[in-house]
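Write out the 3D structure for:
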Amino acid sequence: MSAFIQDVRYAARTFRTNAGVTAVVLLTLALGIGVNAAIFSFVDAILLKPLPYPNADRIVGIWERRPSGQPNSMTTLNYLDYAKQSTVFERIAATTACCAYTMLGGDPAPTAMIALLVSPSYFDILGATAAHGRTFMPGDDHPGRDHVVVLSHRLWASRFGSDASLVGRTIQLDAEPHTVIGVMPENSPFDRMYVELWLPLTFGPDRMNRTSHWLLSLTGGALGLLKPGVTIDRARAEMEAIGARLSAAYPNTNKGWSAVLQPYATIVVGKDLQQSLYLLLAAVGMVLLIGCVNVANMMLARGLAREREVTVRLALGAGRGRVIRQFLTESLLISISGGMLGIAVGYAIVALLKSTLAALPVSMAILPILIPAEASIAVDWRVLSFATVLSIVSGVAFGLAPAVAITRASQTVSIGSGRRTSATAVHRGAGGALIVAEIALAFMLVANAGLLIRSVVNMRQADIGFDAVNVLTAELPVRERRFADVGQLRAFMQQIVVNVRALPGVIDVAFTDGMPLQGVPTVMFFQIATRPVVERAQRPLADYRLVSPSYFRVLGLRLRRGRVLSDLDRPHTPLVAVINETMARQHFANGDAVGQHLLMNRPEFGPVYSGETAAFEIVGIIADERLTPFDDKRDHPAIYVSNQQDGRGFAGVVVRTSVAPSSMQRGLGTAIAAVDKNQAVTEVKTLDQLKSDAMLPDRLRSALMGIFATIALVLSAVGIYGVIAFSVVRRTQEIGIRAALGASPMNLVRLVAGGGMRLAAIGVGLGCVAAIGANRVLSAFLFGVGTTDGLTLVATAGVLAAVAALGSYIPARHATRIDPLAALRAE
């Protein structure tokens, strides 16, 4: 123990003596360990920790499955059959976010709340209880008893001031009284969800069919809790058997359809989020490796500077193991100190990332990487343990190899001989190898960041099919049964159009059932009328856009053939539709689509489809409008129908202006309030903002990778500088002799910097080969750029070459200022 304490004291003295080097090492380790601890806190909370629900391993999400194999929302009668006929579930609950926005009336102004409609057993499946009051019980979903609501703690605190007496009282939702029966716990998954309140899911008579696929939430159309001992494979087999029976019994709606079961843990953590976390973890791992390479080179240089000391100690009888232990003590002491600083850095990075993510708008683009509510991200004991182990491993990694190399080399040097040939060779060989590895790692990281940045640039420049300049959008959440008939709905919409068009600076206004770039709320079965008729369940699907005729003018959508929808397309005129180029290419490749007829659901009032068919004439083809965020690389055949011919409601308005759209926001709200003071207006954004939102995951990934790549470049420059600078010090006498014999400053620069550039060239070559192989994991995140993009690889090589040149030139320039006489007198 006394020997260990002696080693620690001696190490502390050496660090004080070399305070500058010690500070650089501590900063390098703090950065490397800090970013690793921060990203690991996300990985641990999201991917490694068990879900915070009892029996979480038995919870499954349930969808219907199309004949193509894709998951699909569920119909009421199919859900009820699956629930009734299955024997594998202890409990099952239907869920839907179809009516997510629910207006909360009163003062302040009407506010749109995000609601989830669930069966009473929903909370029982998740093993959740209310912190105040209760959750739903059987019977709460019966008509007449369904005006009850459970609030999130977040909403209860922010809107109602944490008033405990609120439970049992009524609040106004959609201008109807609802009794608050419970408040969910604080800091629970239900407090971190995007959902703010829960309502009972009621199956009205209009929902009792197999044609309206409306049951859908992020976790499926239903949640199920498997009975103890039931495997998910057995449950899948039983649900598929039920699906086969339904397919045979109801071929028009169910032929070829079945059910999909997925473990809840794999639902809440999507594939995109997993891949993003693994990508970031690999990136920060490279940053730490580069940092360790730098520190190892510094430790090697320090050991070489202590060559005489090591030689004397070995000559006086110290065992080689004793000397190595001293070096390891020094490296562990500094690595643990760096680790402690790294934990502080990790705390700061986690806080910054959490605040950044919390500020992101919840949109279709962000959903694939939305941090699950089940993940409680914090720098806890698990993260602290990870950082501690990382510090110790790093200390051993960058301390052991230099210690072994220096003691081995020192054994060949005699005291007073003045020879350093063996040790210098060791430093040149080991240091050079470390620099090559550092450059190769930095190349991979910078290339990855470059590809992601190029991808974002391509998104910004991509053809989205419309003119986004001076267009303002606003969502107008409306409950399903607000209007008694389609006449009231259209009168409401027309009055909004009149009021908004009257605003100074407004050119035109249009209604839509979904905002551009934010996904399509509805898909539609269709049948080309001239082709053999098949069962509805076997028909292809297309995105279904319900818009006002002015939508094409407001967005500036480009007409390819025929005409767009017109104000003359009225409820009692022949039904018409416009399709996009993808639809025409996929389904009318051998003929002109204009003039053809599509068999689709008959227009009706309200959100429910009866299943009756009507023929729509295709009157025009438009250029593809970008319907979904950029991460979605699927083709989207789309059908546009006028809201004058199909009265299924709307989502909001788009307004083209002649002035800055941001200046219109207050006036837009005032114009809509003049029609209905209780109408909530939400998500008021320009189209440019929606486009920016559609790129959020990619911008976030590229920003983080860019930061890590910048750190890698700085560390690489420092590493090259350190190696070349130490080489200059060791070769002072040689440089002085060359200068005395007439070597020009340029010759000396080439001599010194040439070694660094050769190492950089080898590292760039190895890094390029490694990057081409490793970049394949990025393919899922790239837009308009390949994983072996030549421009990115060449640019990366250029950046690394510039960094290497800078790191080599500074010490090389210093070498030209060495006084030959002083150098000749140097030892």
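The longest strand covers residues 613-622.
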